[in-house]
Amino acid sequence: MNIREHILELAKKVKGKVILPESFDIRVLKAAQMLTKDGVASVVLPTDNIKEIEKIASGTGIDLNGIELIKIDRSLLDEKKIKEFVDARTKKGMPVQDALELLKKPLYFSMMYLKSGRCNACVGGAVYDTADVLRAGIHVIGPAEGIKMISSYFLMIPPEEHPVAKEPIIFTDCAVNPDPQALGLKDIAVATIGNFKKIFPGRQANVAMLSFSTKGSANNKVLSKVIEATELVKKHFAGQSDVNVDGELQFDASIMPSVGKRKSPDSSVAGNANILVFPELNAGNIGYKIAERYGGFQALGPIIQGLSLPVSDLSRGASADDIYLISAIMLLK
Fold first, then answer.
1. Which of 39, 64, 156, 245 is the most buried (most CB within 10 A)?
2. Which residues contact residue 167 at a Cβ distance below 8 angstroms, ignoring those fewer than 6 apart?
3. What is the pTM of this model?
4. So where are the chain's domains?
5. Under CATH, to which class is 151-298 assigned?
6. Integer angstrom CA distances of residue 72 from 79, 102, 204, 257, 268
């Protein structure tokens, strides 16, 4: 599978529009040009100074033709959604004027532009840090129904001729939650499975709830949350034949058929996992970086999940191509 072409073709069918709040960053401008030129999506770039963005683009040879540059203006937003946001902030003790001032900031304005139904997705984080993107997303967009924990995933794309991984695999959560408990791990898994289905429609989701133990090979109280979370996820997807969930499973038992058969012979996931749910952030963050740096995987993300509308974070080291692909992913339905 050419995962890049697969994602782009799915995104093109949506004919969506994405807003990129960091319009002053050259990587973002390059990604906007690519999205527009390739017909992947329409792009909106919000700014306080349109001429300055045009100057940056001109100086770097970036073509803004077909890209919608808009001046940040409250009149472009839904007044009802603004009132809901302001009311929520004032209940937390923020003065009304301070809440309105937030909406003049590109990140908050972009989230509210999405909330107002003016576009289909918002992608930021090339400059803003994860905490800023999450804060704006939670305050403006809010969590999806039935989800209490906002999380993230990485789409891990193996290099050609990788000896083990032949298809992309999802790692979660590797960027947001330090130590989720059983209900949190359940929310992370549920959101990730939903996103897996968007990226790979019709494909079987094989979900491994990771641990240092496989089916009782060790006995420690820290395993209890993984075991409980596994049962919660299984219950959530009961009767859905396209979702297999198992745990607790060690990493090697999850991805290596020979090891999986030996350690958990009755498991339909062991040796075949394409979604790996890490038990906490230390393991997840270290794991994806080992795969990226030692294993040569391309790590697309962190992609935020669990919000009621498509919003994503970016690594501050993201390339223009990363922004391009993640924007496409966020448009998938």
1. 245
2. 1, 3, 158, 274
3. 0.90
4. 3-142+308-330, 151-298
5. alpha beta
6. 15, 12, 43, 53, 51
